Amino acid sequence: xxxxxxxxxxxxxxxxxxxxxxxxxxxxxxxxxxxxxxxxxxxxxxxxxxxxxxxxxxxxxxxxxxxxxxxxxxxxxxxxxxxxxxxxxxxxxxxxxxxxxxxxxxxxxxxxxxxxxxxxxxxxxxxxxxxxxxxxxxxxxxxxxxxxxxxxxxxxxxxxxxxxxxxxxxxxxxxxxxxxxxxxxxxxxxxxxxxxxxxxxxxxxxxxxxxxxxxxxxxxxxxxxxxxxxxxxxxxxxxxxxxxxxxxxxxxxxxxxxxxxxxxxxxx
Length: 268
Known about the structure:
alpha/beta, Rossmann fold, seven-stranded parallel sheet, 8 helices, 13% strand, globular
């Protein structure tokens, strides 16, 4: 097992890629701290891991709040004695908070909330995890970026810059934490079958034709003609967190079904 004996924190682990990653890390031998603001969904993930014979604990954490982040680190050491892996997965999109999500309409408080969770959150978690990783002899920080931080999308004026910033933060922290034997990497998913994406085609009031149209739009740029499964992204996270990826540092790995490989002109 690739993560045998390791202790990992996964933020935003109550659903989607975070939940899939927490389960996969446990399957690979890690003890997992399942962190989220939603206690019910995160506790359900903990129960799944324990039922499968793994070790897991839930810790409530709003990653934009420094006291919550400090508490997360303290609770991890109290539960499992150390920290080896931090997966900064927690993230939000402005369309979860407002229908006025275009850049010239976006409410200022929504911008602030997205940046606080998507960019400040990973920085805070990494800042307070770094001493624990150093004490453990070194470790790995894996950041969840997005291709939304690499190419432009409508209604992503906060989300896109937050993810672009996270890609750059990954580079900077990789340089700064290399002397303590800690790698910092990130990955950029495309459209993945998670609640964040499902909400677009599961909106109340959509007709079947409208639902199909939204799904076709989501898949329109994919060379692999389907949404990614959270478990497929989790497999990448586990690889990046493992010793198998020891030479991967300070970079962003794209997992987007081919979206960023082309300009929209299909071959016949």
